[in-house]
Amino acid sequence: MSHSSLRIAVASGKGGTGKTTVSVALAEAWGDPIQLLDCDVEEPNAALFLKPEIQSTEKVFLSLPEIDTDRCRGCGQCVKFCQFNALAVAGGKAMVFSELCHSCGGCARICPERAIREAPWSIGMIRKGLSGSIQWIEGCMDIGYTMAPWVIREVLQARDPALPLIIDSPPGTSCAMVTAVSSADYVLLVTEPTPFGLHDLILAVETIRGMNKNFAVIINRSGSGSDCVEKYCKQERIEIILRIPISRKVAEAYSVGSSLIKAEPSLLEPFRKILASLV
Amino acid sequence: MKEIVVISGKGGTGKTSVTASFAALAKNIVMADCDVDAADLHLILKPEKSHSNDFFSGHVASIRSENCLACGRCADYCRYDAIDATDHSFVVKPSSCEGCKVCVEFCPAEAIDFNEALCGQWMTSSMRFGEMVHARLGIGAENSGKLVSTVREQARKLGQRNSADWIIVDGPPGTGCAVIASITGADAVVIITEPTLSGKHDMLRVLSLAAHFSVPSFVSVNKYDINLEMTESIEREAVEFGARVMGRVPYDEDVTKSQVKELSTVEFSDGPASQAIRRLWSELYLKVGH
Fold it and tell me: Do B102 and A104 touch (CB under 8 A)?
């Protein structure tokens, strides 16, 4: 793998295990120019640690249908076609329920009167910035919207293909996580050594295996909980590539937005080794 | 019957640990695990005699390669990047397919099937504190919001049948479709946060979501002693937002220990976190229950 094609996603299953902490540590340990894509668009947090200088802010748009009421004859073909119940005919004319629209464009294509055109509708923001040698790109979905994968795709498209890439993925194993991880060649699954951590790690492993991606596990807060995650990884022959010891100092540093490596400089070398092993 | 939903914005703040303790403390309840993406509540409540139901929702497109003319119109029209070209045909990535039917409708060879999608399972079970409804979303599946709505609907049915006093919902992290489906129409949301910058940032986002849907919010800071200054600042901002601030829960290793023993914190220990959670429940009982 050449430097420019290093593409790592950091994912977890369970929330709050340390995805963002690990993503930021990897980007800091790299040293040379690298991109960090914050794809946790419901709750993007990487900026709290990177404190980037904002370079650009752009809106993310869906295309929402607009009915030309002069042309609409109320035939209802758009209503019949829409899979999301986002259209209805009232008073002989079609009308749109914007919050239900998935922006597929089907109604505009199917309308026999060409009475539907699409207009942009903002559902979030893509921000770019610089923090030292780290190019930060964040997607943030507006409150009340549900199309997270749409915003994630926009973040992934905003990247510079010439630079190596760290993807801070959303928690869970649903469509949003799969969308974020799909652009990576290698996945680091961050977990904690507790029954909750293990249970959600197993779901994440099933998901990543289903996607045919190479992966390894990082155990955060190692030394707390139990040995359940260690046992599982051994049994499944999954590599535990790093154990980050539980530490009140690290937790306190995290609480004020200080990065892991700044709080615990001895972890710089292990992160460099992980990166070196993946290049 | 009152329905309260425990959420957090940020993951890993202790939502499920607190919710499991509420299950032990409240009387006459139905529990619902709406974190269908990464459901953990059952690890503590250990449901038995589960009755499982398949959850179908929406459709997923599938191209019959033998009929495909490889014209590429489906990939052109697809807004979700869900169709890839192969050597002689095109293929749908089911995890990206939104089920909009555009490709099916406009394929000139009518080579695309549109099948109902199995998105997961939902279960009703009994456990030591009563009954619970929980679910498992299929890997990479869409429609987690609809599965959440199904879980809540079933919990309400059970609650009405049993004349329950409380439905207690363990909600998902984030602010997206699953969270919206979890909180709309609930009597209150209880936001469990932690005294960190990210905890605060994410709490403010879920508070505005709850306000958007006019659901009253209660906030409790878990592990408050990790950063007292941050705890105070979070509580101040929560009040400014119109939320009601409740008792704090201290950092206590018994919380993790109880999880390892598959018990709720209040069953396992009488330590500082356990006592704080008991007070939290009494407070909620008084403020929401009447």
Answer: yes
The domain defined by B59-118 folds into Alpha-Beta Plaits (3.30.70)
**Which letter, b or e, does each residue of A171-199 get, where b requires 16 or more Cβ atoms within 10 Å of its Cβ?**
bbbbbbbbbbbbbbebbbbbbbbbbbbbb
Residue A277 burial class via C-beta count within 10 angstroms: exposed 0-12, middle 13-18, buried 19 and up: exposed
In chain A, which residue's Cα lies nearest the Cα of B258?
A225
B2 φ, ψ to 5°? -110, 140
Fold of A3-60+124-278: Rossmann fold (3.40.50)
Q: Taking the mean position of all CA atoms in its chain, how far away is CA B181?
A: 9
- B2-46+128-289, superfamily in CATH? P-loop containing nucleotide triphosphate hydrolases (3.40.50.300)
Q: How far is B163 from chain A (nearest CA, A)?
A: 31
The CATH fold assigned to A69-114 is Alpha-Beta Plaits (3.30.70)
The answer to whether A226 faces chain B, any CB pair under 8 Å, is yes
Is A105 within 8 Å of B43 when comparing Cβ atoms? no
Phi, psi values for residue A275, rounded to 5°: -65, -45
Q: What is the pLDDT at residue A146?
A: 85
CB contact under 8 A, B77 and A17: no
User: Measured between CB atoms, does A196 come within 8 Å of chain B?
Assistant: yes
Chain-chain contact of A178 with B96 (C-beta, under 8 angstroms):
yes
Each residue's pLDDT tens digit, B224-257: 999 999 999 999 999 999 999 999 999 999 999 9
| Contact (Cβ atoms closer than 8 angstroms) between residue A25 and residue A186 | no
Partner A contacted by B196 (CB < 8 A):
yes
pLDDT tens for each residue of B59-114: 999 999 999 999 999 999 999 989 999 988 999 998 889 999 999 999 999 999 99
Q: Is B214 on the interface with A (CB under 8 A)?
A: no
